[in-house]
């Protein structure tokens, strides 16, 4: 199996394990996360290394954590995986991924496979994909994470062409994806008046299992991280969380939750979508990824399980380019 795409039977077994883990996910989230990594890391290690090239550890700012990896496709495929003439490659859409970690932990490469599997998947499907690391609390408090997303986006727009390969990169088709705390930073970057750019720098966004309210409820396992990032003034939690600025969302957004989520995140996602639906008089894209949990919702990408990947590629294909 080395160097090959994981066989369907293997990813189906992994998904079945996630389904079995799901009902007890909130009993011990840390143990559940370890089980997800133990399941998906060896499976991802069997995936082909063909179809993409990567340049690692590029600096987008002055801090040691201002680093990103750029993945580019090496096969001529369109954004939904369709073949295109090798003699005339079109500029590739750009997918930018911002990892999670409860505001106080996390790296763009949690290990040799996890979270790099996300940009790897999109590079295989014809996108230039970027994996972004950012500063953590308590060193970087609100709005530091969103400021780092903004800094990374400026770097990407200025420099991505030199890493994009022969066809180049299409700056009018940037899709910004954030998972968990990374989704909070992405949403704040897009909506919060203290961070958002004067004009949108992306064509669309995907918020995966994002913390859209800064709650410190007793059953929130990441309440200490919320306090470390947003501070201990509960009034500021409400004012600074992405939900407070949802009406300013400037681009199409797809909101994603796992079937088995960390407490309240699915409720907040639905509230976020409801607010956008009221504003726009139509519902935004909302996806619940069956069988998966808060961690496997991204860890399964590039295993052959296309539960979420195909939905994101379709969304990227459908949204209008930015000006």
CATH architecture: 3-Layer(aba) Sandwich
The 3D shape can be described as: globular
Number of helices: 10
The CATH homologous superfamily is named Alpha/Beta hydrolase fold, catalytic domain
Biggest sheet, open or closed, and with what strands and sense?
8 strands, mixed
Tags for this entry?
323 residues; alpha/beta; Rossmann fold; eight-stranded mixed beta sheet; 8 strands; 34% helix; 19% strand; globular; BD-FAE-like_dom; AB_hydrolase_fold; GDXG_lipolytic_enzyme; hydrolase
Descriptive notes:
The chain has 323 residues and is an alpha/beta fold. Helix content is 34%, strand content 19%. It has one domain: 3-Layer(aba) Sandwich (Rossmann fold), CATH 3.40.50.1820. The chain has helices at 8-21, 29-45, 117-124, 144-159, 181-191, 223-230, 234-240, 265-280, 296-299, 309-318, and strands at 52-59, 67-73, 92-98, 128-132, 169-179, 204-208, 253-260, 285-293. It has an eight-stranded mixed beta sheet with strand order 1-2-4-3-5-6-7-8, sandwiched between helices. Strand 7, helix 8 and strand 8 form a beta-alpha-beta unit. The longest helix is centred in the N-terminal third of the chain and has 17 residues, at 29-45. The protein is globular, with a radius of gyration of 18 Å. It starts with 7 loop residues before the first helix and ends in a 5-residue tail after the last helix.
């Amino acid at each position: 199996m080395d160097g090959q795409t994981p066989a369907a039977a293997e990813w189906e077994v992994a998904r079945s394990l996630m389904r079995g883990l799901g009902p007890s996910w909130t009993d011990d989230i840390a143990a559940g996360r370890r089980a997800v990594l133990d399941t998906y890391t060896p499976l991802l290690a069997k995936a082909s290394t063909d179809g993409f090239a990567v340049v690692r550890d590029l600096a987008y700012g002055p801090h040691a954590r201002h680093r990103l990896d750029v993945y580019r496709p090496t096969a001529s495929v369109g954004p939904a995986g369709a073949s295109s003439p090798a003699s005339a490659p079109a500029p590739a859409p750009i997918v930018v991924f911002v990892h999670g970690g409860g505001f106080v932990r996390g790296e763009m490469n949690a290990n040799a496979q996890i979270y790099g599997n996300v940009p790897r998947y999109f590079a295989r499907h014809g996108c230039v994909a970027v994996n972004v690391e950012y500063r953590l609390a308590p060193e970087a408090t609100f709005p530091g994470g969103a400021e780092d997303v903004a800094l990374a986006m400026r770097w990407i727009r200025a420099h991505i062409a030199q890493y994009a390969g022969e066809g180049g990169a299409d700056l009018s088709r940037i899709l910004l994806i954030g998972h968990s705390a990374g989704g909070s930073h992405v949403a704040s970057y897009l909506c919060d008046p203290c961070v958002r750019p004067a004009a949108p720098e992306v064509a669309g966004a995907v918020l995966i299992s994002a913390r859209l309210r800064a709650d410190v409820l007793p059953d929130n396992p990441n309440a200490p991280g919320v306090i470390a990032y947003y501070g201990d003034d509960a009034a500021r939690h409400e004012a600074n969380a992405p939900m407070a600025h949802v009406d300013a969302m400037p681009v199409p957004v797809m909101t994603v939750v796992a079937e088995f989520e960390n407490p309240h995140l699915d409720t907040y996602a639905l509230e976020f979508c409801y607010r956008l639906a009221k504003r726009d008089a139509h519902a935004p894209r909302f996806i619940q990824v069956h069988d998966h949990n808060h961690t496997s919702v991204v860890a399964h990408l590039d295993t052959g399980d296309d539960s979420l990947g195909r939905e994101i590629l379709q969304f990227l294909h459908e949204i209008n380019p930015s000006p």
